[in-house]
Amino acid sequence: MNQTKKWKKWSGVLLTTAMALSLAACGGGGGQTAAGGGKAASTYPEKPIVITAPSGAGGGLDKTARSVAKVMSASKLVEKTITVENKPGGGQAVGLADFVTQDKKNNYKLLLPSTPIIINNLKKEGNSPHSYNDMTPLAQLTKDYGAIVVAAGSPYNNLKSLMDAIKADPTKVTVAGGSAPGSLDHLTFLMPAVKAGIDPKSVKYISYDGGGEAIAALLGGNADVLATDVSGAGEYVKSGKVKILGVSSPERLKGTFKDIPTYKEAGYDTELINWRGVFGPKDMTPDAVAYWEEKLKAMTQTAEWKAELETNGWDDGYKNGADFKTYLGDQEKMFKEILGLLNMAK
Amino acid sequence: MDAFHYLLNGFATALQWQNIIFAFVGVLIGTVVGVLPGIGPISGVALLIPVTASLTGGLPPEEAATSAIILLAGVYYGAMYGGSTTSILLNTPGESSSVVTVLDGYPMAKQGRAGVALAIAAIGSFVAGIVSLVGLVFLAEPLSDVALKLSPADEFSLMILGLCALSGLAGKSVTKALIMTVFGLLLATIGMDNVSGVARFTFDMPELYSGLEFLTIAVGVFALGEVFKTILERDANEGEIAKISRILPTKQDLKESAGPIIRGSLVGFFKGIVPGSGATLASFLAYLLEKKISKNPEKFGKGAIAGVAAPESANNAASGGAMIPLLTLGIPGTGTTAVLMGALIMYNVQPGPLLFDEHPTIAWGLIASMFIGNLMLLILNMPLVKVFAKLIETPPKYLIPMIVAISIFGVYAVRVSVFDLVLLLICGVVGYFLAKNDFPMAPLVLGLVLGPMIENNLRRALTTSNGDFSIFIEKPVSLVFLIIAVLWISVPLIMKMRGKKVVVNVEG
């Protein structure tokens, strides 16, 4: 951080010198050079860019960040190298805290989080002090949905039979998820469970470090049910190792998931959308904000990006920075309400 | 045989000239990455992803993915070979998985047996690499199923076994070893709790959110501690340099290491398959096992060749074992395999249950290339042993600044944080005073590794059982681990008590 500050100071000095020189050159009747225009026409970016995925490698966030990096360079939209960094832990709280506190002014760092950063800021236990307001929303990229998954050999074939079994004896069914209690995976399961009349506190929920370890627990028989995102489960559905009982989307999904009922169709009137989006630091300079808003919009229109969405089973959820910010506000209100119902709000 | 047929096809892929070059570049960079502390396999592989992406840019997608993953995997297992070098020569672990190697590797070097230690590390790594590859080829599917079945309760009991085995790392006093273990476990609680997301002992310092970096502590207490000792206690033997008596191991050395290498390979391989454990723990377990079953356990810590052979085989086998859940299930068991998975995804190759059906060229090409790469590493490392071993003859006045420089560079490279450098220096000073008072360092670092794993698995197991502790004895695998743990502690005690009685009787 100090280095950036110093660099800024020096670049300021250099710029001033350059302008003074070019003024002097003008006075001498020489031709105006580009140096004077350096301030108006932004030279951003001048260095490689780092996108931080606040999760372990291999999960949905990491995949999205790597897809952005790949499409940006494949389509030549961004000439500078984009690298993806993983900062796992605390259900995105570690990555967020690090980004908000360490990189407040660093124009070359972006964060690619998802819905949990809102939930973390609202819940009582394990509260994360930082909110989306501590960053600059640049664009929403994708929409993903929650899924309730069981192993292929599981006795449960629909949501109702599962919910009935839990209602009858909640100590018999173990639900695994890749994030902490009270966070997205947990809510993915609890939202329909509450509608089914199950006491949310009686549900046995085990958190693992990321979706990968959680699906390992399901496949190994150490958990009966897995609450995860739809895109993370697709590969295992195709190979016939798991079945999805329900998805949290407002409408039926397409492709691999076309036969799976939504929560609403199964009789539980609730839905959950997990966005993924790109944020800059709070004090990002306006030229950098403008640069990324434009580039991210252009990226979402490329054929390469559409192919990425297709292969990963993500839904295009593009929103520009301003719309994204409004949406985040709405979502914050909604989660406050749900967590209040569950008695888990701050 | 089916697997054999596929493997032959894999060799056809791996032996294409560009893939041989990619494998060679990979293992070469891997060795360098392994030698330098700080740049671990994770950052090494991550740093090279963009480079390989542009190198393979001109190839068709399937071939590009094959070549890239061959190179990146080469960096991964290459690093396991290189990691031992600084552990043995400079008492500075190059990777966290080589931390335990310093315990006997450095004493060996001090006795002028650096060459032998390095050579055994390379040979052990090679054997382990081949063992884990054979396992990967023929047993991948059934083994990954077994590994998945391990429940949090089983994992917890295994960690408890690891903790009980810690007394085996004690120097002169078991009490002091236990103090250091608890100290390590306490340090491990610093940071954001992974289960609930609560910040513990962070005092609102964001540097502490992700906990204390394991390698920083290890390098601090081992390498810098030793440096301070050398500077502060310039005793009579200053200037006396360990002469290298021999580079290549004798027949006796090979005989003594054969068992540890095989056992280390097996321990490492199985630990590698279980997601979420990793090579560091494997190397510790292999070391503790050797010390336990050795006829001369008192030799350990003073330059026992088995103390180098076992952990170095284990960490290499673990890296091979970790490829199994990655390739067959799409579940990365370690940080580095997670990055490898990210690289595959960048090429639109999804590791997982469908990989061997959808992309046989990539999967089998990679496996075949690992055979070739391991052979390259052996050939590459044996002559290097001579070069590296000479390093130990450097007089302390040059060697000490070199160790300090490598330590600081390495620690800084992990997180690019000045905070870690301060922590490194503090650990160096603390390490010096602790070592001076006979507090062993190894239990401290192992406690640091085991802490979060024990805690998370305990909480998961108890959630499953609705808070009932009997789950640990109801699960058969867990019960077996616990029984071994109890025996581990009690058998020597009982034998000692009996031994004492005999002595008392004689005196009486």
UniProtKB/TrEMBL annotation, chain B:
The keyword Iron does not apply. InterPro entries: DUF112_TM. The chain crosses the membrane at residues 20-49, 116-140, 208-228, 326-349, 361-381, 402-435, 477-495. Keywords: Membrane, Transmembrane, Transmembrane helix. Pfam families: TctA. It comes from the Bacteria. Residues 20-446 form the DUF112 domain. Coiled coil: none annotated. This is Putative tricarboxylic transport membrane protein.
